[in-house]
Amino acid sequence: MPLLSRIVENEEAEYDGLLTPAEADWVELQPLLLKNGYHLRPRYHPNWKPSWRRLWNFFYKDMWKCPDRIGLRRWNLIDAVRAHDGKRVVIKRVIVEDDNIGILKYLNQPEMLKDPRNNTVPLLDVISVPKPPGSKETALIVMPILYPFFSFMYPFHHAKEVVYAMEQLLLGVQFLHEHYIAHRDACVFNFMMDPTNIIPTGAHHQDDRLQPDGKTRIQFRDRCSVGPIKSYMIDYEFADFFPPGNTLCIGRYGQEKDVPEMSLTEPYDPFKLDVYQLGGVARMLIEEYEGLDFLVPIRDAMMHPDPTQRLTITESLSLFRNTISSLDAEFLSQSIQMKFRMSMSNPDALPPPTSPLPEIRKGFWKFCSRV
């Protein structure tokens, strides 16, 4: 079947399992990735044909039961397997001048990795992409497959799990600031976790309800039963160096749109921006879970509307640790649960929260109710 006949011309049409234009770009990159030792799923091989359309296929006539129907969540991210050791990885296509590969390389230097606070996503490989005339230089960066820090599929179950995770995030941002780096998008969807111990079978990168085979439901282990879970920070395209004496910048909005001082024209302190954004993570946790009200003073101090009155990251970490030290082990071991448990059959029953997640939450359950 010719490639163009497998491309969905109207991307807003109901999903039919065929390749989108964005996916067709990855088909073109498949030979380059194979040459560099990375195997894409069969869906992205040049000779792929949908399994549910094959005449001889008596087992997978229903497209939704076919593993090769699973496409991409984001046009610039794809999962792969590293040939020499079978490690599952994620590959991101980036514009070299815009995506701060230099900062990622710097933070992944052996000397930088010796500091346990460094939770920068590991950079496993960088592959140059041939540059067409008149276009910007792009590259493919290879990273391990991680799991979202905030997940409706795998919520936190104990207060101490949240405490350990938040401390890692604070330490990670402190590490960046000590090296004069501001992330400038230190928001909830840029924090991930290592799923190795909690999901032993692994999860499909494009459908985290399923195992890598695209068919079998994943099974979770309780965080408390497997020990500390390592957290990571991703997406450094807004990050930059701000050496002493040059600590102001302008513009470039991240996920958190309500930062009081954010401006495209008036200079602001990017380090105080990181603190505000990380305070937004605490706010989200408080609003989404019962039993985390002890984070309220930390949230309020980190999200002070006046950046000159807002804590530094080190002061935030100190306040966090002082707050946690006043809580006993029994309290931290208590169970917590998400405040809003919507019925799968009635996702519109969810009352509107003030966090930035209502539409994401509603969309998630609506998606689950269809599959």
From TrEMBL:
The record's section on PROSITE patterns has: PROTEIN_KINASE_DOM
* Gene Ontology MF terms: ATP binding; protein kinase activity
Q: What is this protein called?
A: Protein kinase domain-containing protein
Please give the superkingdom of this protein's source. Answer: Eukaryota
Annotated Protein kinase domain residues: 64-360
